[in-house]
């Protein structure tokens, strides 16, 4: 019986080791997602094609489970959420968001700077528009 208690104690001891050297923070349980809205020149929402998010620091595409915002739906797309927090640096990464205008077939690329990282509680937009007007 004592062996089991010692083994269980060791498991708890080693499982408490921090993976990252982070300052202690108090985080909320809010789930943050950062999005963008596409509109045309008549201020109408537009469903774009081929929506992609590229991280220039890591040279990789960031894939979210749901790009279209299920609440707002038409014209609203999720760039990144807390689910991908660890894919970003704490100081912020430059993300290139690209999408094709379904009317003109032109590709629109827009730059965002978004921070995250393993020691932050949530993703945070540092720079970039809330809305993109397609021409």
TrEMBL record:
It comes from the Bacteria. This is Uncharacterized protein.
């Amino acid at each position: 019986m004592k062996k089991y208690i010692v083994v269980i104690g060791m498991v708890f001891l080693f499982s408490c080791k921090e993976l990252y050297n982070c300052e202690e923070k108090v985080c909320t349980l809010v789930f943050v997602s950062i999005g963008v809205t596409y509109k045309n020149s008549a201020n109408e929402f537009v469903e774009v094609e081929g929506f992609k998010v590229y991280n220039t620091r890591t040279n990789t595409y960031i894939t979210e489970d749901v790009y279209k915002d299920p609440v707002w739906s038409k014209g609203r797309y999720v760039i990144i959420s807390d689910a991908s927090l660890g894919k970003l640096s704490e100081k912020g990464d430059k993300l290139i968001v690209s999408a094709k205008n379904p009317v003109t077939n032109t590709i629109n690329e827009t730059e965002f700077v978004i921070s995250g990282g393993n020691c932050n509680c949530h993703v945070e937009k540092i720079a970039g528009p809330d809305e993109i007007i397609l021409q």
